[in-house]
Amino acid sequence: MSATGATTLHAQSTSPFFVINGADVISGYPLEGHLIMARTAPDHKVTLDGTPVTVADDGLFVIGFHRDSDDDTTLSITDGNGSISTTILSPAQRDYNIQRIDGLQKSMVTPPQEVLDRIRADSKKVREARVVPAPTGDFWRGLDWPVLGRISGVYGSQRILNGKPRAPHYGIDIAAPLGTPVHAPASGTITLAYDLYFSGLTVILNHGLGVNSTFLHLDEMAVRVGDKVERGGVIGTLGSTGRSTGPHLDWRIDWQGRRIDAALIAGPMPDLPES
Question: Residue 238: its pLDDT value, please?
C-alpha cells in the first residue's frame, strides 16, 4: 500500500478551502465541537486514527470533534487498489464561557444516595440509545433550529451550579414559552423517549452514521421509540422537567460519544416571527 497526499491543517485554520484528500467536503472543518460532513466513493474505506468510520451507501461519512479536542487526528481513505490518502486534522481551539446557575433544588446538584442507581440506569439507557443503528437521514443538508427563542445557554460552558463546579454544558439552551412545539431538525429514528432524572422528559433522534440529536426538559413527548420522523415533524413540546429553572429546550448533538455544538451546524437562529 502507498500513502499519498498528506495534508496538515493548523489549529488556527478556519479556511473555506479546507479539503480532505480522497473525499469532497460538504460542510465543516477541524474545530472543537464541529462536525465535518464529506463524501467519498462508496467502496472506499475510511478510518480515523485507525478506527473504522461508517460510510453510507452513497459514500457519505462524518467526523466530529469533542469540546476538548487538543490532539491531531489522522483521517485515512483507502481506495479499491489499496492506495491510501491521508489528511492530518488539527482542530482549532475555542474559549468557553463560565455559566453560573443558582436556585436549583439541592437534590438536583448533589443527588441523594437513593437516586444514584436511577442516574446510573439513565446513563446506560442514553449510551445504548446513541449506538442503535439507524438509516442515514438528511442531516447532511444541515440542521434546522428545533424551536425559536432566546438562547440562554451555549455549548461548552463550564457550569457552576449553586456555587458548585460541575461538568461543562454540551447543549444549547433555547428559552421559549411552555408548550411550544419542538420540531425535528432533520429526519431520523427515535431511539429514546423517557423520563430521566436530570434531563426530565428526553427524546433522542438518531440521524444515522452515529449522529444523534437529543432534546431535554420536554413538557410532553409526541413520539415513541422506533418512530420515523421527517424534518420538521413535532417530537414534543418545550418544558421544564428534570434539572431546570424555567421553560427551555436543551438541544444536544453527539457523534460516536463526541459532543458536537449544534449551533455550528444550524447556523444563526432565524428572527422570531412578529406576533
Answer: 98
